[in-house]
């Protein structure tokens, strides 16, 4: 066999091997995708907490609707952490609970006692000095009991230098776990052109089941 004939024979073997390999591959559809490859749509982004259709007045994100909804779960946040765009932990810890965790108006809610009694404060919002404002929010309580978890959950609501105390008694299953809650209101008079709301648990420091708040709004009177 001449060198030329040897090269031709080698090329013939190579071409035959390439054709066999192509035949073994699944054919592609018109879009160039093999029919046995399953196309997967990207996972949808997590939904945010439910919106209060009536709005939250001049208070930014009082319904926490700018934050991802944990759904049936919750997570703990610590002193100094911003757990929502307009809310920061004021001390110790709080629990941020999904809208399906408890039936608290079908909103996301905050247990002011995380692993320890804590609190939170809002971002500042514009007010007019001397004008009265009405704060409205859902109040309930975590009905879990241990030696440091009282039946009467106590919290303070502060607007700059003005403070009001609220309590919620969880005895008789009057708690968030059983969908028991009520809207509370408080009026303060602004003494500054910007105001911050602060919610603080007044329970024992070691309490891990405290006052529960949700759907907060501020409107001028």
Give structural notes:
It is a single chain. Helices cover 10% and strands 35% of the residues. Residues 1-37 have low confidence and may be disordered. It contains one helix and 14 strands. The protein has one helix at 3-24, and strands at residues 74-78, 82-84, 87-91, 93-97, 109-111, 119-122, 125-126, 132-141, 152-159, 162-169, 182-189, 194-195, 197-201, 211-220. With 221 residues, the chain is mainly β. It has a six-stranded antiparallel sheet with strand order 1-4-5-14-8-11, with no helix packed on it.
Summarize the structure in short:
This protein has 221 residues and is mostly beta strands.
Secondary structure: elements and pairs:
Blueprint: H1 3-24, E1 74-78, E2 82-84, E3 87-91, E4 93-97, E5 109-111, E6 119-122, E7 125-126, E8 132-141, E9 152-159, E10 162-169, E11 182-189, E12 194-195, E13 197-201, E14 211-220
Antiparallel strand pairs: 1-4, 2-3, 3-6, 4-5, 5-14, 6-13, 7-12, 8-11, 8-14, 9-10, 9-13
